[in-house]
Design brief:
The complex is a heterodimer of chains A (353) and B (356).
Chain A (H helix, E strand, L loop, with lengths): L8 E14 L2 E14 L3 E5 L6 H9 L7 E13 L5 E5 L8 H6 L4 E4 L3 H4 L6 H12 L5 H14 L5 H4 L9 H12 L6 E5 L7 H18 L2 E6 L2 H7 L2 E6 L2 E7 H6 L4 H9 L48 E5 L2 E4 L7 H6 L5
Parallel strand pairs in A: 3-8, 3-9, 6-7, 7-8
Antiparallel strand pairs in A: 1-2, 1-4, 4-5, 9-10, 10-12, 11-12
Helix pairs in contact in A: 4-5, 4-7, 5-7, 7-8
Chain B lengths: L17 E16 L4 E17 L3 E5 L6 H8 L7 E8 L2 E4 L5 H10 E4 L13 H11 L5 H14 L16 H13 L5 E5 L7 H18 L2 E6 L2 H7 L2 E6 L2 E7 H6 L4 H9 L39 H5 L4 E5 L2 E4 L21
Parallel strand pairs in B: 3-8, 3-9, 6-7, 7-8
Antiparallel strand pairs in B: 1-2, 1-4, 4-5, 9-10, 10-12, 11-12
Helix pairs in contact in B: 3-4, 3-5, 4-5, 5-6
């Protein structure tokens, strides 16, 4: 991947819309989500349960269960390197998720780490066999012998002690931190251009979390990988992300570089979230909770989905039509009526582009 | 019940204002092998833990998974039988020795010491509606029944921020935050003095956590509750607690007033734990210290200090002798040979400007 530089556009997601058609009703899991991912850089996605952060990432991976899910709109364009050194663009949204082409991408160009390493590994096979399987599938001309050697190398690289023995261990024989390292080794087994990390440290202790995050960042520097880092933990995202996207009920509420999101947040949801979390440093202030609950996922919102909990809502505006996506500053987008120059104007272009 | 009726300040020299005394408390789980379940060793989940709880305070118990913080809470409540040590609770009705309760005392203890659990999805019975769930402790303890029970449940349900119309609903119709409120109502309905909250906000969404933390604070004021708050999250502990107890591999390694302990930790593990939490303030955002190593296996602990393998200040003596409890003041101690000599970094409370 030496021919592709840091900061080059790797993935474009445009107006992604994924709904789940369930017996109880329709869940609008992802509504109009757009973002770019660049080589060597990290996009952080912050959101609570039901925000659509995981479904957005799983759509890129092509692993959203369909049915019940259906991608109604949107494009997922991957700009991948070709063997001859060029760049070709594939629209992942148009590929058959079960087809050979997508299988080559999944685990090849794109690797993924999940939250719970215990449930992501099969308990019946050794760690080495599971990582080796990915290598045999994706790396041309690999043999069981070469796959095993590569697996031992990978385990060493992610900091597992005695990798030649760990390769024959079953997942339950490793500690939580070591299992997550093995998981990372599996995701990295085919030198992915993009690593999707979905809450990779949420189940881990804070000292182990620090180790895993440092490892991911070291590997990013070595491999010039792009990372999509999904978490509900603002402090963790603040430490790893170059830019941050804040999601709520399937919508991107705010998107800016990491410094701006934390220091000068614009969306009322982002600001409220920031005031409602306990912090380890800074003056100890009374937390200001966000009132109410996350709405029922089946609910359909005529206006802004955050309306009922927002302290700055404008009655008759925010509950009447979907808020527009505005760019009050260069590179800083916010989906909120508060930043519209003129509310009438804003309500026109509201349904997304 | 006559033996229960000792005056609270009388027996065993309990100081006034102390609700709970824990002395040398240990809980070992046997490791068995084979068909006959022969005992081949012990997991020392909690080893020789001593502390006291003052009336109305909040003690935070913090540590990584497997450090014994949950087992400590459960052993104090006698959900587990203790292996060694004493737990005494001073109630208006008298002092109870939790290790040897008579059936009568046991009933009283169950009413005065309650627990709030972590997972509000797992801790509620899906077949019981809210009235039954919250009313059950009143019924089984023979405190109230019928209309009186319903009135008491209705009162507590409103105090935790739910509505009376909710009483006939079942857990599935509530969100995580609301379920945790139900769990809190169930714990508080019997008028407890001591509440052990085991990771009460860990399973909740970030926007809901603050609601529950503030609710717990309000209820503490209103009902004069004493909390033992078990958590792995140092930021939550910092927010809600008066004193902090740090556990590692089953031992209490440091205990002290919050500000003192956060500002100047005395045990190297406390310092490591604090340094590993990502900072949020501008300028230091995301910064944290990365250290190698994992906690030891509690069934196979090293001789000497349990923290020796990860400690950067380790000396020969740490590998040979158990560290003594070194007191910094009568309220602050650390189990470290060098507690008085080391100068460890805590949390610097840098002035920050939050944009609002």
């Amino acid at each position: 991947m030496s021919d592709t530089g840091r900061g080059d556009l790797l993935l474009e997601v445009r107006n992604l819309q994924v709904h789940f058609y369930l017996f109880e009703g329709v869940v609008q899991a992802v509504n109009d989500v757009s973002f770019d991912v660049h080589r060597g850089r990290t996009l952080g996605i912050i959101g609570e349960s039901g925000s659509g952060k995981s479904v957005s990432a799983q759509s890129v991976m092509g692993i959203v269960p369909s049915p019940p899910a259906k991608q109604l709109a949107g494009e997922i364009r991957l700009h991948r390197a070709t063997p001859d050194g060029g760049i070709e663009t594939v629209d992942l949204g148009r590929l058959d998720p079960r087809g050979q082409e997508y299988r080559d991408v999944r685990g090849g160009e794109i690797g993924m780490i999940f939250q719970e390493p215990m449930t992501s590994f099969s308990p019946l096979h050794t760690v080495g066999d599971q990582i080796g399987e990915a290598i045999l599938l994706h790396i041309p001309d690999s043999t069981p012998q070469s796959a095993r050697e590569r697996t031992v190398d990978l385990l060493r690289r992610v900091g597992i002690p005695r990798p030649d023995r760990a390769v024959d261990a079953y997942p339950h024989e490793l500690s939580g931190g070591m299992r997550q390292r093995a998981m990372i080794a599996m995701a990295l087994s085919c030198d992915p251009a993009l690593l999707i990390a979905d809450e990779p440290t949420t189940a881990l202790d804070v000292t182990i979390e620090a180790q895993i995050l440092e490892l991911i960042q070291e590997l990013q520097d070595d491999l010039n990988m792009a990372i999509i880092y999904i978490s509900h933990d603002l402090a963790v995202v603040g430490g790893v992300a170059d830019e941050v996207m804040v999601m709520y009920l399937g919508l991107v509420m705010e998107h800016a570089d990491a410094e701006t999101i934390f220091d000068e947040p614009l969306h009322p949801y982002t600001r409220a979230l920031w005031q409602s979390i306990p912090k380890i440093d800074g003056p100890l202030e009374q937390l200001v909770p966000i009132s109410g609950n996350i709405p029922n996922p089946f609910a359909v919102h005529k206006g802004c989905p955050f309306y009922a909990r927002c302290t700055e809502r404008i009655q008759g505006v925010c509950d009447e039509s979907p808020p527009p996506v505005l760019e009050p500053r260069q590179g800083h987008t916010v989906r909120c009526f508060l930043y519209a120059d003129d509310v009438d104007l804003a309500s026109n272009g509201a349904t997304g582009d | 019940m006559t033996d229960v009726m000792q005056t609270a300040s009388g027996a065993n020299g309990a100081a006034a204002g102390e609700l709970l005394q824990v002395e040398g408390l240990s809980k070992y789980f046997p490791i068995t092998k084979g068909f006959l379940r022969r005992v081949i060793g012990f997991t020392k989940a909690v080893h020789d833990v001593s502390f006291t709880l003052a009336n109305g305070e909040t003690l935070g118990v913090v540590g990584e998974s497997g450090c014994g913080k949950t087992t400590l809470g459960r052993t104090i409540l006698r959900l587990y039988d203790m292996t060694a040590g004493f737990v005494r609770i001073n109630l208006d009705e008298g002092q109870l020795d939790v290790g040897s309760l008579t059936p009568e005392e046991r009933k009283l203890f169950r009413r005065r010491a309650q627990m709030i659990f972590q997972d509000p999805f797992a801790s509620l019975n899906p077949r019981m509606n809210i009235l039954e769930t919250v009313g059950e402790p009143l019924l089984v303890n023979g405190v109230a029944k019928g209309t009186e029970l319903e009135q008491r449940v209705a009162r507590i349900i409103e105090q935790v921020g739910l509505r009376v119309e909710h009483l006939r609903r079942y857990p599935h119709s509530f969100s995580g935050g609301q379920r945790q409120r139900i769990g809190i109502a169930r714990a508080l309905v019997v008028n407890p003095r001591l509440v052990i909250a085991d990771e009460p906000v860990s399973a909740l969404d970030v926007s809901i956590q603050a609601q529950i933390l503030n609710l717990l604070q309000d209820l503490q004021q209103e009902f004069h509750l004493t909390y033992m708050f078990v958590s792995h999250d140092m930021s939550v502990i910092r927010y809600i607690c008066d004193r902090i107890a740090v556990m590692y591999a089953g031992r209490l390694v440091e205990l002290g007033p919050k500000d003192e302990l956060l500002d100047r930790p005395r045990h190297p593990y406390t310092a490591l734990l604090l340094a590993a939490v990502p900072r949020t303030a501008k300028g230091s955002r995301g910064k944290r210290l990365v250290t190698a190593g994992e906690p030891p296996d509690p069934s196979n602990l090293p001789t000497g200090c349990v923290f020796q393998e990860r400690c950067v200040h380790v000396q020969d003596i740490c590998r040979e002798e158990d560290p003594p409890q070194v007191s910094m003041s009568d309220r602050h101690f650390a189990a470290c040979h060098f507690a008085k000599d080391l100068s460890l970094d805590g949390i610097t409370v840098a002035p920050v400007t939050l944009s609002t």
